[in-house]
Amino acid sequence: MRQTYGKLLPGMRISDLTGKLIVIEGTDGVGRSTQINLLKPWLEEQGHAVLDTGMTRSPLAGEGIRRAKEVNNLGRVTQSLFYATDFVDRLENEIVPALRSGFIVLTDRYVYSLMARAFVRGMDSKWIRSIYSVALKPDATFYLRLSIDQLVPRVVFSRGFDYWESGMDLYPGRDMYDSFCNYQTALLAEFDRLGEEYKFEVIDASADAEHVFERLKAGIFNILEADSRKEFVSTREPRTLSISAATGKGKIATPPQTTNPTEFELVLRSIMAHATNGNGKTALHHK
Predict the structure, then answer these.
(1) What would the pLDDT profile of 142-184 be if each residue is shown by its tens digit?
(2) The pTM is what?
(3) φ and ψ at residue 242, rounded to 5 degrees
(4) What is the largest CA-CA distance in the chain?
(5) Rounded to an integer, what distance in angstroms lies between the CA atom of residue 34 and that of residue 51?
(6) Which domains, and CATH codes, for the chain?
(7) In this structure, which of 4, 83, 190, 270 has its CB flanked by the most CB atoms within 10 Å?
(8) Are 77 and 122 in contact (CB under 8 A)?
């Protein structure tokens, strides 16, 4: 049964959220967006409706976060509240409605990234966890992991170092390369700790994108397949054939809530009626 990390959004009914919540986590440069761009069409080809979402995409707070980060003067408390607003808005207006409609929700990072960033910046753990206690527990969290030595070349040869992803607000005046290494090392340590706490499925992101994609497909397929088996079993009412010791009559034992006989039951009842001549005496005998 779906759960939150402590609190329910007003008016939210957990039992209504029948979709699947799949999280792709990891630091910048590990290939999260690439994998989601591969996973979404693959899932849609399997017949699933898919919503993909991610940080700073909230209509309420996303643009405000981007503008605040442009001037490099976003304080750690304001930053935490901005990101929390972005997350809760997307949770209430995107993620929950999609899950209620049976969608698979693919999210590019989740509260774990937000928590890791806040913890590295010295924010109070109890307060940060209380902010994100409304978060739904995912059906799976796949953590794409790279060591700092593997991460640096990817960032250097892609978009280069970014002020915030280099932690320059934590290490002002330092060389951006050194700041990036220090900040990302601290983030990786937090991710590793959170991964143990929240049971991430760790995937080595140093492999080529196709290999990582195959790993993710296998993990997601197992989740969907297990859910399909549960649904199939739940639709099969337990039925047994019992023979009355007193009369020898055969009958179908069904749960009390079953009111309409199935086609199988009707056929079996007909067979038993012919076998007993309708009077409890068997019509079958050895010659």
Answers:
(1) 999 999 999 999 998 888 899 999 999 998 877 999 999 999 9
(2) 0.79
(3) -120, 150
(4) 103
(5) 15
(6) 14-234 (3.40.50.300), 240-276 (no CATH)
(7) 83
(8) no
